Amino acid sequence: MKLYSILSALAVCMGLVSQEAGAVTCEPGRLPSNPDTAYTFLANGTATHAPTGLMWKRCSEGQNWDGSTCTGTANSYTWRQALAAASTSSFADYTDWRLPNVKELRSLVEECRYNPAINDAIFPATPFQVFWSSSPQINYSGWGDWSWTVDFSGGTDSYSERFTNWPARLVRGGDYFDKLAPPATSLLSVSANGSGTVSAGERSINCTANASSLSGTCLATPRIGSSVTLTASGGTFNGWSGFCSSTSGNSCTVLINAARAVTANFSGGTPATASAPSAPTGLLATPGDSSASIAFSSSGTATSYSATCIAGASTLTGGAYASPIAITGMSNGTPYSCTVTAGNSAGSSAPSAPVSVTPVASTVAPSAPTGLVAIPGDSSASIAFSLSGTATSYSAACTAGASTPLTGTGPGSPIVITGMSNGAAYSCTVLAHNSAGNSAPSAAVSVTPSAAAAATTGCYPLSNPTDTSIADAHNGSVTVTNVAGSGCSAWGVTNNNPAWITPLPPYTAVGATSYIIGYTVAANPSASLRTGTLSFGDAPNTRTYTITQYGTGGAPAPSCTLTALPASIATGSAATLTASCTPSATTYVWTGGNCASTATASCTDTPGATTTYTVAGVNSVGTGAAASATVTVGANVTNSGAVAGTLITRYRLYSNVTKEHLYTTDLNEYNTLAQSGSWVAEGAIYQVFQGPGSSSGVAAVPYYRLSNPNSGLHHWTTDLNEYTTLATLGWTQEGIVGYILPTTVPGTLPLYRLYLNALGGLHLWTTDANERSVLISTAGWVDEGVAGYVIPLP
């Protein structure tokens, strides 16, 4: 038993529990999120919070406890003074008081009231000010010395410079908060039999039954320790059945300390006899750090689900009313066997077939997010970014001048920041987090919020016509970008599969740049893969996103193909082998030559003799079938075809301003840009034909270049129609900048083209198969195929 439980029990037996506190004062019509029942308060001026097990001083530092309330004025401290005050406190004969971390302090926020946003019965006379936490804000050292705070005027968290003076509240205990989880909740199932309605105000419970359906059922997940008051209305009410801790007339009060079911009985019919649901199927366990997510297929009539994970003598449980269920408190490196049970008012199903999972700790902090795009709104901004590999959460911060940063958090992109001043210029960065720590801040992006402008209609020239997203995690987002210079400021969305795809409103245009639309995806009840689409714009300029979702069995092991370029080489020459897998592989298993130690999608080898290589893709499901390719080595093999024409070297640069890559055969342009300070020289990369030419009888085709006077971006294409169309949309044609081959011949390299739907829409061209694979799998780039074939450097 935890220490606080023993102390609480002893306090009750010895008559030390204080009875003076009144009830928390809530705004009219609102129920408390931290009710009086969540605390055990003692006459010595302490209160223990049942959901967390933490013991708190009821008064702010500097105030005095007189046995019934807090008197005097709270002191204000710098951050270091608050830490020192906590270390020397011996209040109520305890010497282990400390300043709470920000998550602990945030757990006291009472959502039913403000000024102060705390239970005023348990913590009387609390100043509605910012309070210090012990949590340092270590990732913004460039801005000064900061620490996290909680503002008890409205209940929000932020951070302040440490020389600022704020009040403090002390806490003791806290083994539970070493791995802080969100406040525990439990399922409340409410049914109405006959003709009538059951409601519960802000809990958003509103169950209606009528003579035709004879029953209505709805669900909620209130916080454990809270109370919910249900009210029956309409029809002829005949009383309550199920769990009511107290009743009064048409009202039923439910204490949420376990899963509860309540039924309101009305005249008008007898509900149909219910039967217990079938066992869930298609379990898929995804490991996390000291946790696991258990996904499954829904079970028809089920209204709730519970998961049980067992490792030896340890049993952990969790509940939810839909897939997935999160299980926390697991031991990393220990295999668990997990089952899921479905339930409804008639009882519980048998356990599902078990699934195994082994949680694993993150050992490396994630890399900083990249590709930030800030979309202004009315007093707000949406910060979109590319996800960072091992990150489990993200936080964004936006600052205007010397003002206190505004922050927001979320599990992924985008993060919405509110409370901004319209017309003020903000600089925003994003951090990635996991159990190993925090990333460095991302590169900053600027945004100026403004009152939303009225949208226009009928203008949809869109870049990058098709994207694909695997939505097996049941949510995602898409970004739509105008062709630069088109002047469009309106968007429309058509949901072609409303039965299981739900776009998330509002659909607000943002100037003539980008627009992020989130969507949620319902669980796929079938075993087969299904495909749906979201469409944007008006024909002929419609852009369609294909959303593909795996069935109950989840994603299969990767199916791969393997190509060798060139497939025939001379002795002492190299060949590059590239794997392409669907679904994406997280690692690869190679055999053959010197590729056996490779774990990426590409391997370059110099075999001494003809060699057959194999590769198999691996993901969380398992290892797929191996694909093979052979590289033929011969003394009489030439590494390139007969070249007719003049070859010229092509160079690559990177812009620190626009974040684009620029390609040029003009050595003077290359050197001038490299010396400007805005471009980084990346060297010679391959050769193209300076004029018309051919290799092995294949004629090279013109390679056109364009520039955008608005964004500063450049574009290259062999497609004359694309070259012409972009010019009508404001792009400047810069003519032919070389010739490349339209098909592969011996000794040539494929030139891959990729697209990033961020930063105004970026394109990238590369002959590096590994760079292509990494950008697609980790940075959100979209593969647009092979733009042509070029000649390697001599």
Helical coverage, percent range: under 10%
Q: Kindly estimate the percentage of residues that lie in beta strands according to DSSP.
A: 35-45%
Strand arrangement across the biggest beta sheet: 12-11-14-17-16
Structural class: mainly beta
What's the total number of strands?
60
First-last Cα distance: 74 Å
The total count of helices amounts to 6
Oligomer: single chain
List low-pLDDT spans.
1-21, 140-144, 175-183, 211-215, 269-273, 452-474, 482-491, 506-513
C-alpha-based Rg, rounded: 31 Å
Shape: globular
Description:
The protein has 794 residues and is mainly β. The strands form 17 sheets. It has a five-stranded antiparallel β-sheet with strand order 12-11-14-17-16, with no helix packed on it. Strands 21, 22, 24, 25 and 26 form a five-stranded antiparallel β-sheet that branches. Strands 29, 30, 32, 33 and 34 form a five-stranded antiparallel β-sheet that branches. A hairpin with a 6-residue loop joins strand 29 and strand 30. It is built from six helices and 60 strands. The N terminus is likely disordered.
